[in-house]
Write a structure and sequence with these properties.
Largest sheet: 6 strands, parallel
Shape: elongated
Strand order of the largest sheet: 5-4-1-9-10-11
Oligomer: single chain
Number of domains: 3
Order of helices and strands: HEEEHHHHEHEEEEHEHEEH
Number of helices: 9
Helix content: 25-40%
CATH architecture of the largest domain: 3-Layer(aba) Sandwich
CATH topology of the largest domain: Rossmann fold
Strand content: 15-25%
CATH superfamily of the largest domain: TPP-binding domain
Length: about 260
Amino acid sequence: MSDTDTLAAVTALIRQAKRILFITGAGLSADSGLPTYRGIGGLYDDKLTGHGIPIEKALSGQMMANRPEVSWTYLAQIEANCRGAQPNAAHHAIARLVADRPGSMVFTQNVDGFHRDVGTANLVEIHGNLHQLECTECGRGRRVPDYAGLQIPPGCPTCGGVMRPDVVLFGEDLPRDGILRLEHMLVEGVDLVMSIGTSSAFPYIAGPVIWAAEAGVPTVEINPGETRVSALVTHRVQMGAAHALGEILARLGVAA
């Protein structure tokens, strides 16, 4: 099937759907200039950090608890490399599609907050948000536009405890409420599952696509590369997210 035919088929599925589950990953924000995970990757690849440890260890929950200054060193580097980036056409397109289909949901791995910034409804940020800080002592929260000017690690203005981003670090559990919202969405039924810009490496990301394929629910993957769900989906669009979703919106006759 040609790209033109595939986009036409995907557009037809979206036009008919009332409840769409969008699963998004770092590839969605690539057109905003953000690195994909490996990532965050581009900063470290397979090299050790300046502390002589892998980035996964530096950004672990255990390290944050025991040596927060180490974790914050790399969190600050990552944020600085992403600072100034803005949501792209793909984020706006998904927000528009969800707004037109109130039963839909966006389940994202991204911590950049771009889905939230464009007003996406029914959003689950399963890995959290880099711009929301919480105190490890008193639990009070604080939202920041970026980390410029922050003391590293930042102290809580209320109790003086160490603050951390409200994100899931390596070795930490996922937020149960987010997983429950995903489960409820699937139990209540969906008309279409779309995996966009994610390698589907984690079971809770690939799982809904696999479930939908087995249940006969149409599935779509938008990703230039091949992933563990590529062979399972109904339609595979090998394009960047902004390009593909722009084409789809144009075919739907709507603007983001």
